[in-house]
């Protein structure tokens, strides 16, 4: 596969997979277990097919999963900071905005409730965050940047990461909060890309992403228990 074909493959498959997951989240709305299987198939199998078709890229693929120990401590500190910011933001905003809609949507759309939330939150924090980092940072950013321009990789990866969350959070927030969330996701996507750019592995962003999910899951558990 030539360089231009590789770029087209990455852009096309990432776009289609993100769109497919958006449709699954916003329209199909299967049980969470089924949705997770679909996401694994799209976000893991499609990139693996790319590396299988481009054997010369296999060394770069392996590098995505080789951590640099000296960077992990920095990522952990940043993750603690992100966790704190999310919790404080929720505590400040909970008296301004009624978040009960979020809990209702989780239950009605995905079948997530107080009884199964602990299992779902473990999956989201550890497995789902790794899957998204492999797809949006390892594949849609690091791999794309190697084949195209740095600017294109930054914009494309962060934009698709942002748009992908629209289907997932459909109906959760009013228009203003939705716009703020999307802007935050785009900026967050750019920061995640930056964290991984030098090392060319996904562990930096994964640790921060994991900490962000810990905070969101903690808030989600509180909301579900107070429905």
Topology overview:
Layout: H1 3-28, H2 32-53, H3 58-63, H4 69-93, H5 100-110, H6 117-147, H7 150-168, H8 175-197, H9 203-225
Attribute tags:
227 residues, mainly alpha
Helical percent range?
A: over 70%
Report mean pLDDT, rounded to a whole number.
Answer: 89
Uncertain ranges: none
Element-level helix/strand string: HHHHHHHHH
What is the tally of beta strands?
A: 0
Principal-axis shape equals globular
Number of helices: 9
Query: How many angstroms does the end-to-end distance come to?
Result: 53 Å
Structurally, the number of domains stands at 1
Summarize the entry for a quick read.
The protein is mainly α. The chain contains 9 helices and no strands. α1 runs parallel beside α7 (about 150-170) and α8 packs antiparallel against α9.
